[in-house]
Design a protein that fits this description.
By secondary structure, the chain is mostly beta strands. The chain has 1 helix and 17 strands.
Length: 245
């Protein structure tokens, strides 16, 4: 899976005009550039590399994110593969961009906020309860034991969010937040006017899951990462004490 996905992405890069590509395939336990961002500044999650995949566990419904990059990153696309293994309650899988300190834009798929199955995109401060709703919609929960791909693109004040190649939200589109068959909120997918630069990340709440094949592409993104050369057995490696905001 790892080799096929990355080759496919790399073949498309010359056509896209991107200047930089950051690839993380979790083949080692190097944490030097990573930080953990936890909603409401709650206790950290658990992250470890097992069989060249990032194994993550969160103890409650507060999302934990692994983040990378700096406040100067502007227009880029982040995508990551995720395989939920166990759901511990109302939960979500999250992808994020334009992370600057504790402020960010993030999209999630799950039932953490509303019973059932929903997607939400918001901007806000991860250490407070303050956020601005950008979009909402209905979508089936990610299947336990199956790989899925989340993708988030930010360009200027606009963004697009995809799940498994299906466009879920795009700035300017119509959206509706539906509960029990009734639309509670209707509107246009919002803009990122006050959040134009920052790093990227991904994470989860109330799940045990595996992540793999993180790829970030964009003009300001540094080149990093290579294709896997030869598979070999590998013991689980605990990711130690992550830096936190």
């Amino acid at each position: 899976m790892k080799l096929t996905r990355i080759v496919a992405v790399l073949l498309l890069l010359p056509l896209s005009g991107w200047a930089g590509t950051f690839i993380e395939t979790f083949n080692d336990d190097d944490l030097e550039d990573w930080q953990e961002l936890v909603q409401q500044n709650e206790k950290p999650g658990t992250w470890e590399v097992i069989d060249r995949e990032l194994h993550a566990v969160t103890p409650d419904a507060w999302p934990r994110l692994l983040t990378i990059g700096n406040k100067k990153w502007r227009d880029y696309t982040i995508e990551v593969d995720v395989k939920p293994l166990e759901k511990h309650g109302r939960a979500s899988i999250v992808i994020a961009a334009r992370i600057k300190g504790t402020r960010l834009v993030f999209c999630e798929i799950g039932d953490r906020l509303v019973p059932g199955w929903d997607t939400f995109c918001r901007t806000g401060d991860f250490h407070t309860n303050t956020s601005v709703l950008l979009s909402a919609g209905q979508h089936p929960l990610l299947k336990l034991g199956d790989w899925s791909t989340l993708k988030l693109s930010v360009k200027g004040a606009d963004f697009i969010f995809w799940i498994n190649g299906e466009k879920i939200a795009e700035t300017g589109d119509d959206f509706a937040l539906v509960l029990a068959g009734r639309a509670l909120v209707r509107g246009k997918v919002g803009r990122l006017d006050d959040l134009l630069t920052g790093g990227a990340g991904f994470g989860l709440s109330n799940y045990t899951a595996r992540f793999d094949n993180l790829i970030i592409t964009g003009k300001d993104i540094p080149d990093k990462g290579t294709l896997p050369v030869a598979p070999s057995g590998k013991l689980a490696t605990t990711w130690g004490q992550l830096k936190r905001f």
